[in-house]
Amino acid sequence: MTGAPRVVVLAGGVGGSKFVLGVRSALRARGLDDPTAHLTVVVNTGDDLWLSGVRLQPDVDSITYALAGVNDAERGWGRAGDTERVNGELGEWGAGWPWFTLGDLDLGTHLARTGWLREGLTPTQVLERMSHRWRLGARLLPMTDAEVDTVVVLRDGTRLHFQEWWTRHRATLAPARFENPGIGDALPAPGVTEAIAAADAVLIAPSNPVVSIGPILAVPGVREALRSASAPVVGVSPIIGGKVVRGMADVCLTAIGVETSAAAVASLYGARAAGGVLDAWLIAEEDAPAAAEVAGLGIRPLVRPLWMTDASRRTALGEAALAAAGV
Description:
14 strands
């Protein structure tokens, strides 16, 4: 193709933020010093929550902080060099969740967001305002402006907010299913389906396929936009060597009856030719034997190094995903 490609990435969580950094870096390597007009990231908002009167958007903030270069790369969440004085004071009052740490700088973000929401701004408008602070090199869009927080339903019927199940219990309580109440009536955030329709490449990050990418695809209209897109849809496996890279995605996959393997996640997404969303699927070198199984699904397999352990590897993966989409 001629000219700079228009790229859309569906992402959430730490894996998503690392991948977005890689795609941005790959675009910069092509001469786009500021790829903002060419890179759109549709971010999962299914793990959002209200806590101590403020609205938290963990995946939105993780990706924003990563692109801004202010994230705590070691912990994988929050701001680098943050302190926790306010969090400690909340604990003294018996407020908040003692097992859910809120950094002071991070709380500044949540307070600003909550104030704007209470003034009548939508989450899309809030995220646009947040993006003005730093030179992100990408346009960020929430998957929807509706509140569709994730609820984990345990096998005994107990219902927990996803963050309680994930952060407090570390996914040790066996889930029966995951729900996003109200998502059936939600709409894609303004600009989401339009960006997909205008894209030259659509990339699905190696994020948790159940609770990060799953909610994005569950917003009515998003899956249909992917199926009708003129651009190739390329996904990156979050499974390397039959194991999850980070977090407890294997527990999530088991809960919905999906094996923790690169081929099984490809099958979960499905081939566009068969009513799914994928044209191509990047799998790790450790999973090369699964290429034939992926091809049998009607999805083009590409074996590539998937570890994003440093900036050069992130960039190489971003470039590999773009190349897989033919841009």
